[in-house]
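Troubleshooting entry. The earlier prediction with flavin-adenine dinucleotide gave an output that would not parse, so I re-checked the input for stray whitespace and re-submitted. Clean input:
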Amino acid sequence: MSDQTGHTEQTGQSGQTDHFDLAIIGTGSGNSLVTPDFEGKRVAVIEGGTFGGTCLNVGCIPTKMFVYAAEVAASARDAARFGVDATVHGVRWADVRNRIFQRIDPIAEGGKRYRIEGPGTTAFLGHARFTGDRRLTVELADGGERTLTADQVVIAAGAHPVVPDVVRESGVPFHTSDTIMRIDDLPEHLVIVGGGYIGVEMAHVFASFGVRVSVVARGPLLVRHLDEEIAARFTALAREQWDVRTGTTVTALERTGEGVRLHLEDETGSSVLEGDLLLVATGREPNTADLGVEAGGIRLHDDGRVAVDEVGRTSAPGVWALGDVSSPHQLKHVANAEARAIAHNLVHPDDLHPLPTEPVPAGIFSHPQIATVGLTEEECVERGLAHVSFVQSYGDTAYGWAMEDTTSVCKLIADPATGLLLGAHLMGPHATTLIQPLIQAMSFGQTVRDVARGQYWIHPALAEVVENALLGLAV
Ligand SMILES: Cc1cc2nc3c(=O)[nH]c(=O)nc-3n(C[C@H](O)[C@H](O)[C@H](O)COP(=O)(O)OP(=O)(O)OC[C@H]3O[C@@H](n4cnc5c(N)ncnc54)[C@H](O)[C@@H]3O)c2cc1C
Ligand SMILES: NC(=O)c1ccc[n+]([C@@H]2O[C@H](COP(=O)([O-])OP(=O)(O)OC[C@H]3O[C@@H](n4cnc5c(N)ncnc54)[C@H](O)[C@@H]3O)[C@@H](O)[C@H]2O)c1
């Protein structure tokens, strides 16, 4: 047997059905389910793409490595106003890209080798689909099929980029986040369709590297699911950096000599936008279309997510799901937390842990950075919740003043009756770090007064922005 399916003693011959204690579909967050509790047991690990999944290979990790390089370039360009003369002579794209993937690719390869050769697991490299109750058929990447059954199955199959029909059917070449980070050369002009997480992070990266960037967004604001005040402030700053077309629909696309032409429609009429590279960043959908869910007895939500109960069980007994394939939050910290709960639940049937729920924080590593947790002000209004809010400018605290910051803010929303935070929304340098005490306060039910007054806040650290925002709330 090829080492693609791992241990010979465990996999049996092609055509036979192997039985396992646990089968895991997907090696992103799913890979962490092989805990010491499974020592001496038989675990099948099935991966149809790159070992390690989205976060490691095409998601959080490479994007943030590019963002870090982008910040270095952006800081140098901004240095002169502090009396430091610095020039960005150029960005060696190939070196930036290679440094990143020469660090990441060996981790993915090492993880795969470990699952193939290491103890306790049998790796199946191929696409799995249910062909019965806890029965999976794997179409192996190098040809052939294997069928296996398991006492328990975990679906950790993730999600993939959605490409609107208008783009796909036009036949123009395009990138998604799966491919854009490995391009050969920087384009002169990058057009991004989609003004969500990926759109604004990639706009920051490429613009900081000297690329002209256009962002085409359907909605009136970028990152429009956020608190409207933050989305509006962010969109205004984005317009200073990139060519931002909000309220704009792509009606047709065509190939030009070296690039692409987009036909756009907005409230003022139609227009044309040309660029030499196109990135589509219009959301991600769960990988359930080709999973054989009917054969497996697994119920889906209308949006294609696997439906799970509060402890991660699907509608099929013995089958669990976690992460992007089932969660409404496509975030790695959510997938990780769900994996921790399910790792416990797999071996403790009489002491099931609930999947972690609200509040779910998120960070967007664009320019400026954004961090958010809890309700937006609009959601408070929609729900008829009594609330107060306060917006603290970074520039009105000591460190923000030292930075000569004029645009960054921390907006807090609280319940005046209980003194508890309802939401926190930051936009500015280190927003994703500064928000953590607010996530903690909301997670542990700490009141605004206790968090503000019950501890020291280091002076003159940037965290005083958060302290002052808490003190500014009238609760
Ligand atoms: C560009 C980008 C940037 C991101 N940045 C962040 C960030 O900064 N912070 C954050 O919290 N989140 C971020 N995310 C989201 C985060 O990456 C995902 O939420 C997380 O990786 C989901 O993990 P998962 O284990 O559910 O799925 P995945 O990591 O996608 O793992 C699923 C695996 O299953 C495999 N698979 C699928 N179907 C089958 C099948 N039928 N048979 C066999 N194998 C199969 C896939 O090949 C894949 O390897 C980002 C995402 C993207 C795309
Ligand atoms: N820092 C992070 O945590 C991070 C970074 C990147 C991605 N992610 C995760 O990955 C997910 C996917 O990212 P994303 O940016 O692709 O999705 P998104 O949902 O954040 O944004 C997609 C945008 O595309 C727009 N859109 C959808 N269909 C469209 C169409 N047909 N034409 C034009 N615009 C259209 C939407 O209105 C939305 O503004 C995110 O929701 C997030 O959960 C997280």
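This one parsed fine. Residues 93-117 form the longest helix (25 residues).
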